[in-house]
Amino acid sequence: MSNPLNALWSASSVAVVGASDRPGSLGRLPLEFLRRYGFSGAVYPVRPDGAEVAGLKSYARVRDCPGPVELAMIMVAAERVPAAIDDCAAAGVGAVIVCSSGFAETGEAGAALQKEIVTRARAGGLRIVGPNCIGTVGARNRQVTSFSPLFSGERTTLVPGDLAFVSQSGALGYGAVSLAFERGLGLGWVVNTGNEADVTALEVMAELAALPECTGVLGYLESLTDIEALRALAATGTPVAVLKAGRSEEGSRAAASHTGALAAGDRVVDAALRQYGIVRVDDVDELLDVGDAFAQPRRAGGNRVAVVTTSGGSGILAADEISARGLRLAELSPGTLDALARIVPAYGSVANPVDVTASVMSRPELFDRALDAIVDDGGVDLVIACFAVLTGDDVTRVVASLARAAQRSGKPVLAARTGAAHLAPDAAGALRKAGIPTYLTPARAVRAAAAL
């Protein structure tokens, strides 16, 4: 393939260097995962004695494998990694994932060893992801080249989608992936970059963002010093959101000890992200919330928000957050206000936030007319619909109405449903299927809207 990094998520063949036949061992897990999740490419276990591994014939060296190897996972002890790099280079491998730890994250000796493997890799014409790396996933390719315990879960299934997720941290990154899958948020590509001795998270994010099928990129970063890579990422035009750790001095020191990387000052990071139009979030939940907004196909033409609700309290909370996030409550036109006045009872409100009341909600034709009036208003760029304790047949009616309004207008429609999941267990899934991101509180919906 033209770019060796593409093998991280769409390889046709994978070698596992340091393969083990011992159940539960790190050298066996990737072989099990590739088989369990349906990878259709060639898989080559590599170990010195050539013994069978997980029912597969193994090979003493990568160069002994019977076919070309696009991607190799190196899972041997740190001191054996340089020889493994040389072997991969001799075999013509384009990219390797160095899963082994014991490099820059451990101090000067480890940092020197890390420099050595990079020197050898560059001399051999291959790219290194890692070291100290948990691996990658290409959901479309059913490729789980990772040893994360996430993929050992009895109920774990891949949830393919059009979003990419790139993380310097392996354990935290795959924890976030598990939360994304749990909420039904599809991820087409997952990459952990570890110590970033060679390949960086920003480089991978730019490669993924350039894929025509990728609708958004989410990232967890501990260091951000390459402005050129940031510029290249922004130039793709694909929406990007990052959770940049190490805001405080203490956090920066912790990041440095984690991967051996240095972090830029937080004000510099903030300014750079703002300059290039990249969304910065504060925690994992917000990163995934923004991912939900990126996953729906519609984009806002501006920052004017209409709020539709049956709860005055929800409307107030939404209005507060809209102001705090630099958005604007849309000023509805006289024509829109007149149309709403003919629909909404006197005890509701036609001013934005629009309180359509429960009586309108119970009559689908009236709710549809109210939504039509709002989304047709030229002064509205996106709509946030806020509900509380949505249950029973109301769910079906609301989903149909919101999906119709979004389709009719081409404007983003987000929903906040404040209520226990058991009251409407199918609501979130139904809204997601209809292309309507849904959040537990108005504030979370507004923050996701601000990202758009």
Quick structural summary:
Helices cover 39% and strands 17% of the residues.
Sheet with most strands: 7 strands, mixed
Tell me the structural class: alpha/beta
- Report the span from N to C terminus: 34 Å
Number of strands: 18
Helix count from the secondary structure assignment? 17
Beta-strand fraction estimate: 15-25%
Rounded Rg: 25 Å
Give an account of the 3D structure.
The protein is of the alpha/beta class. 39% of the residues lie in helices and 17% in strands. The chain has 17 helices and 18 strands. The strands form 3 sheets. A 7-stranded mixed beta sheet has the order 7-6-9-8-10-11-12, sandwiched between helices. Strand 13 (304-309), helix 11 (312-324) and strand 14 form a beta-alpha-beta unit. The radius of gyration is 25 Å and the shape is elongated. The mean pLDDT is 93.
List keywords for this structure.
17 helices; 17% strand; alpha/beta; single chain
SSE layout and pairing:
Blueprint: H1 7-10, E1 13-17, H2 29-36, E2 42-46, E3 71-74, H3 81-90, E4 95-98, H4 108-124, E5 127-129, E6 135-138, E7 143-146, E8 163-167, H5 170-183, E9 187-192, H6 201-209, E10 216-221, H7 227-235, E11 240-244, H8 249-259, H9 266-275, E12 279-281, H10 284-295, E13 304-309, H11 312-324, E14 328-329, H12 334-341, E15 354-355, H13 357-361, H14 364-375, E16 382-388, H15 393-409, E17 413-418, H16 427-433, E18 438-439, H17 442-451
Parallel strand pairs: 1-2, 1-3, 3-4, 4-5, 8-9, 8-10, 10-11, 11-12, 13-14, 13-15, 13-16, 16-17, 17-18
Antiparallel strand pairs: 6-7, 6-9
Helix pairs in contact: 3-4, 6-7, 10-17, 11-17, 12-14, 14-15
